[in-house]
């Protein structure tokens, strides 16, 4: 039987705290979400003044990164490069930059999605959260 690591509740708290600290340090009002490898929401934090829509976009970006096992920006790039048929892919709605998978020993165990500022800044926040795990 194969075994794999999973995100614990403590891991989710670490990710959210570190991502929040990075966002607050930069004065970025965002929503941060963490999902498991199946795209199920494990935790979310909407910072003060973050747009309400970001509470829908951040988990969608995370789910896309988890299910696809790659950064959500890659789907955005595919579509922008003309493969618009990919918009019909099932179960993934957050095909925008800002979803980053969490990988442990070659296993995608979940993902972090951020929405609220420039997509490249969303990624920096997600990466700061993931870095808190010390992987």
List keywords for this structure.
alpha+beta; 4 strands; globular; four-stranded antiparallel beta sheet; 135 residues
Structural write-up:
The protein has 135 residues and is α+β, with helices and mostly antiparallel strands. 39% of the residues lie in helices and 20% in strands. A hairpin with a 4-residue loop joins strand 1 and strand 2. The chain is globular and about 40 Å long. The two termini are 24 Å apart.
In short:
This protein has 135 residues and is an alpha+beta fold. The protein has helices at 9-25, 54-68, 73-80, 119-131, and strands spanning 31-36, 41-46, 99-104, 107-115.
Report the order of strands and helices: HEEHHEEH
Computed Rg:
14 Å
Task: Determine the strand fraction and express it as a percent band.
Answer: 15-25%
Overall geometric form: globular
Low-confidence stretches: none
Question: How much helix, percentage-wise, in residues?
Answer: 25-40%
The end-to-end span amounts to: 24 Å
Given the structure, what is the number of helices?
4
Task: Please give the structural blueprint.
Blueprint: H1 9-25, E1 31-36, E2 41-46, H2 54-68, H3 73-80, E3 99-104, E4 107-115, H4 119-131
Antiparallel strand pairs: 1-2, 1-4, 3-4
Helix pairs in contact: 1-4
